[in-house]
Protein 1
Amino acid sequence: MRGTLTKPRLLALLASLALAVALLFAALAVFAAEAHAGSFDNRPPKGVLMRHDEVLQSSYAAGGSWVWKTPNGWSSVISDNFGEYEFSKQDEVPAGGRLHVRFDKPERPHFVAVNAFPRVKDSQFGGKMFAGQKRRLKSILKPVKRDGEIVKWDVFFRTNEPDRDYLKVTLGWKKEPGSHASYGQGLYGFHVETRA
């Protein structure tokens, strides 16, 4: 009776198989919810400033406009930040170093602008406003893939010169015909200390 399974062993094998299938479906549900939230969320995606794989800062959109699908139709919001931003503690980065901002949305942005400013000034409402001559930084979009599917987008750029420590990143997505994905634009602010 060497090759046969006893009833307790068969039950244990079936229980293990059921557990493995349940874990697989749970992992797929988490992945689907993550992809769904990035595509159909009712606010612009969070921006995460990174150097290589290191997270430096994160920022929600400080202003912009956003449109998303609801069970009753399309909804929208317009958020005017009056040019004000809240900046976290600065992170030190080398001049000429490559940084990127990761956005948790699988659709490719239609518009990207990265501008560097030398300073900020106090605003009348308590936040900070970009000040001084802005300099547009060349940026490159690259997809982030998981299991062959695009799940996020990275905006790469270089901190070309010292004393351009305040970064304003603007992204925009257009409505895709036949799609129910959310779209709009968001304005993001980051603070780094660029050293020579």
Protein 2
Amino acid sequence: MAGELVKWSGRKIVKPSPVERCRQAREAAIALLGWQEIRVRPNGEDLAVSLCRYPGLAVDVPRKCSIHGGLYAARYVFGTDGRFRLGSMIVVSEALYLRQYAGNRNAATVPSDELGDETCPLCGASGFGSVLCHICKTEVCYGRTSGRYFRCHPNCGGEGLMQSDARVQRGVVPVDMRWR
């Protein structure tokens, strides 16, 4: 009986079956690691993806520079306090896009009330979060804003008064897609 769990069943002591022990081990692992989803890779192998937030989880939220039109990402990191904090701003080159983002389905969200003061790594403009263009539906930097008036990147041409609204920022958990 050293360390084994036993179930009291009237007068008999019943040891858990192997199936019951597996179920208990699975429940303990889920409690420790959080729920996971099993996805099938294109080559047929299984891949476990965590569906819960954990301290250190990085989420890259896509952005576009309103001055230069280049792509970048705001990296938010989930902390032990249960909130996301701005970690860094990343210029997304073609090589980085292909390595980390192309085909990446590990979607994650960051609540808008947890956004930080972001600085565009391409033009240097800064502001709280980003501006959502009502025309192209792209999150752009504050590079072409004046007061509460904004202009989107030159390829779009959208402009207008900024409105504050609570929205969820959609991003991805960065992974090395070469191994997927």
Protein 3
Amino acid sequence: MVNNYKMQNNLISENDIKNVLSKILNEETSKVKREDYNRVRYKIEELQNSLSETVKELRKLESCIPNGLDLVTKNRITGVSSNLLGAQKLLINLKDKLRKHKKSMYTQPVVEKKD
């Protein structure tokens, strides 16, 4: 009876194995290669450049609108402009968070030796 009790305590259940495998798989997928960080950063920079060009084109559009259409277009153009500027700020924040995350993942603490 005692041996049977010990065996039951030492058995690994199917759920235990699934849980361990799930933890291992989640850890593997949470690791990101440096190249992936660089690729994402590059795409963010491309998007930032595209947004900057779009803002320039919007300003050109705004400057060529005749006074007769000013009343109809002013609010809409202002809304588009503010949304573009908001998107630019969000991309800057995203790029900064990405940089900080990469730094935290790949920075190793340096232990100073005291003489």
Protein 4
Amino acid sequence: MKAMKFDVFLHRAYTTLKSIPFGEMTIEEKKLLAEICFLLAKSNITNRDSTVEGRKLAEESISLYNELNLTTKDECLPILSKLLPDFMHEGVVKSRLIDSLKD
């Protein structure tokens, strides 16, 4: 799958998940949204399309992971396991994306 097509897919998934009222989202939906935010942020930052948008998405991912309060290795296993690091939590987003934006 080409990167551009994959980004379109991710944006559609992001929009669909964002349409669910936050209080009605399941833990899995919140976790999936956090993962999608990470992947979109990574794409924006890596391709230098928009570091501002990338930072915003990375911060949204961090906020979702903080809300989820994942504490065990099993909880940190990503839903999108083929696309993400072995474990996902707010620290991964910070170290891989936010820290890369520091001047």
